[in-house]
Amino acid sequence: MSEGIITITDAEFETEVSQAALPVLVYFWATWCGPCHLMTPLMNSTATTYSDRLKVVKMEVDPNPVTVKQYQVEGVPAFRLIQGDKLLASVEGVINKDKLLSLLDTHLN
User: What is the pLDDT of residue 50?
Assistant: First the structure.
């Protein structure tokens, strides 16, 4: 698995998330969202650290209303851990590294 975050759109969601071999952490964000910019370093380190067990993608909310509605994203930043068509975990708002790692370790180990 390549390291790093992949930016996706509604059109790519099926291929990049639903059909992915690994669980996928979807990071919903917006350009106008200050707290989202604070999450970028954590998302980058998570993508690198978990590259063997997890795929990390990010999706801007405004141009992608279909997926935002489907996963009931009500605020950003938002995170959805998905495997196939199953939602494993859902978090809205800024989270710290310990909370994110705890969430991932619960579902990936």
Answer: 94
Per the annotation, the verdict on 36 as an active-site residue is yes
Q: Is residue 1 part of a domain?
A: no
**36, 39, 68, 100: the active-site residue:** 36
Give the number of other CB atoms < 10 A from CB of residue 48.
Answer: 12
Which of 8, 25, 33, 39 is an active site residue? 33
Annotated active-site residue 33? The verdict is yes
State the total domains in the chain: 1
Domain that holds residue 15: 6-108
- Residue 9 DSSP class: -
Query: Which CATH number do you get for residue 101?
Result: 3.40.30.10
Q: pLDDT-derived band of residue 30, with 50, 70 and 90 as boundaries?
A: very high
